[in-house]
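Batch job 17 of 40 flagged for manual review because the log was empty.
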Amino acid sequence: MNGDGGGELAEDDDWFWRFCSLSVEKYPNNQMLGRREIVNGKPGEYIWMTYKVVYDIVLKVGASIRSCGIDEVDEEFEGVELEIMLYLQKKGGMRGLTAMADHSAKEKDELLKTLHGAAKYLKTIVSFGKVTSQQKEEVEKFGVAIYSWHEFLSLGENRHFNLPVKKKTDICTIMYTSGTTGDPKGVMISNNSIVTLIAGVDHLLGSVNQSLTVNDVYLSYLPLAHIFDRVIEEGFISHGASIGFWRGDVKLLVEDLGELKPTIFFAVPRIKQGLGGNVRIILSGAAPLASHVEEFLRVVSCSVVLQGYGLTETCAGTFISIPDELNMLGTVGPPVPNVDVCLESVPEMGYDALSRTPRGEICIRGNVLFSGYYKREDLTKEVLTDGWFHTGDIGEWQPNGSMKIIDRKKNIFKLSQGEYVAVENLENIYGIVSDIDSIWVYGNSFESFLIAIINPNQKAVEQWAEENGISVDFNALCENPKVKEHFLGELTKVAKEKKLKGFEFIKALHLDAVPFDMERDLITPTFKKKRPQLLKYYQGIIDNLYKSAK
């Protein structure tokens, strides 16, 4: 890899570590990582650690980890989150785990509760907060050591360990998916995938005269489990640029932005001055950006607005829009230079990759692809065919070479705030309501909440109406606001009982007196819902539901 981050890399180099080291050699005194100084409870300016200081700390951390008896095989699992740690414990085969986190008092208590079953897998706990003597005694009963951050760093003092020899094909990290439809999946990402992705983004930004420089500043507020945020940070490191961190409170985010004055921002922001005044590039990801919002941002922020698309399995960015190409509004742009992309027909959904307007499942091939799901070869085989990764997203090629995301092959989608929704699971839960014969839950990546189309049980509705002094026919009852309010209340009751998350609650609904049927092409002969056809049929009603709910 060439560029600001350093020189050529040899075949046997650990690529990711190597270009970090090269940045330290080239920019030892550059500001690398910063956080706001808190004085007497009030936030002050950002204070910074230089590349050389961070590098020295990293070496100390590595030495401390090795001092705990963790070998290089286990290093892939350092810093796992609590819920992921419990999953790894359940799956087995993870010994000597090191859980590192800034635990609150409540989180520490929750962690301690898990030790009875986790102790044979968990060896060391490192807390960035304080550790009381009582907590130490509690943990040591299970043969597990717990350290504060400073105690942990001292373990590696005056100890030297040779760095393990790595290759570009070695696994650099394992990113765990959210596990929306089941257990979390460990996405194995190689050194080669990360460096290839960064090289592609560098090439793209350079081609539009927006190359990263040592003067760029980035605000990090997404968790490291978010692949796009992670590779952006790694890209910044390769150029000797600066990364500032937020204070962890979304209500204070705008204030942190104003103080840091980033040059590049990843989110859907409001105006440029609210971002500190120095923003030159806005990256939008995690969910589609509506065309009118994208156009508005380009005008009012005086910034380059880039919309991208990618998955953890593709090491984040796979498509990125081109600046100042207004005919790409509403799309995620063309593929980055280092991937191959094709569409595969999905006939059961009516999508033909060979039609005049090509539509189908987006499939991706290239060095950015993940190396498989950890210990889940079965799942890996489901999504990888002859080197092509099947994303599950339905795309439409545009005449200008950009891609537009139009659907989801599997019934999972994101809401506008980036939360995943497993719609079939929700329909099973809400179907518990005895007054409901059938329910179709709908949401999309341009809205923040869910709505539903319901076939109510006629006998149950008429009985409820009689008990509540409403005397009209069934069709009229389905239009009655009080009846709709009753159903919304029942759905909310079930959602609370099943402890659904806030974004999984139904906020508006429509009652259809006519059951979903084959005559309207809304269900299959086996009574499965045809979701694209349902959307087309109820589009007007859906639009009105969102409009009225807002």
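Reviewer: the log was empty due to a logging misconfiguration, but the result itself is present. The mean pLDDT is 82. Unflagging and moving on to job 18.
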